[in-house]
Amino acid sequence: MELYAIRFGENFAFAKYENIYRGMGKFGKVTEFIFSYYLAKCNGKIILIDTGFRDEATANKMGITLIDVENEIKNIIGDIDCIDTIFITHSHFDHIDNLDLYKKSSVIISKLEYDIALNKSPNSVKTRLEANNIIKVNDEYIFDNLFRFKVIGGHTGGSSVIYFEEGQKRYVITSDECYMCDNIYKNIPNGNCVSSQKNENFITDAYNKGLIPLPFHDAKIFEQYEQISKNIVRIV
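Above: the chain's sequence. Below: its structure in token form.
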């Protein structure tokens, strides 16, 4: 398997310590907050874990600087039409709003988050979710005997994470159940949740098991792993 992290945005006006680390007692802006998603190549398939977003008006409103990574991605997979499957961890704009770009892919999403997206997402996303190739998950879903998609419901009502192993290492792609690696490494729950208890249970379980976190907003990911291009690193 090959797994890549792709950075498509940086800066965020609302990246505050109290939102990211619950009960830490530290305030101010977290400067290493970025925006990313993941891409996997395995068993002859190409898989996206979340999609990012591209709306400049939304980015400006949130203080986000978008990064054009199209050519960097093409160097790895060629045309995006070859993407077989997309996991959606939750329906916040920075994780789902580019879904309409992928017309042919199967989509795996929690049932609750699917319902939320149909109510709150842009019409282009709603139309894409109304296609036939959508797998709606109530609890968990095993994909290709490799990825375990698990509904947690801490950050949002149906937010989900993805567990997998590579060699002797055990990973979790965290959705926004944690924003930063230190949420798990230091056992600090997320400060932005609909269910603090479910989030705390997930964080504590990952901490106790020694799982390697792969969050979507931590710039450290792009310092710790092998650099493939300016905005892409290879995890495994």
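The mean pLDDT is 96.
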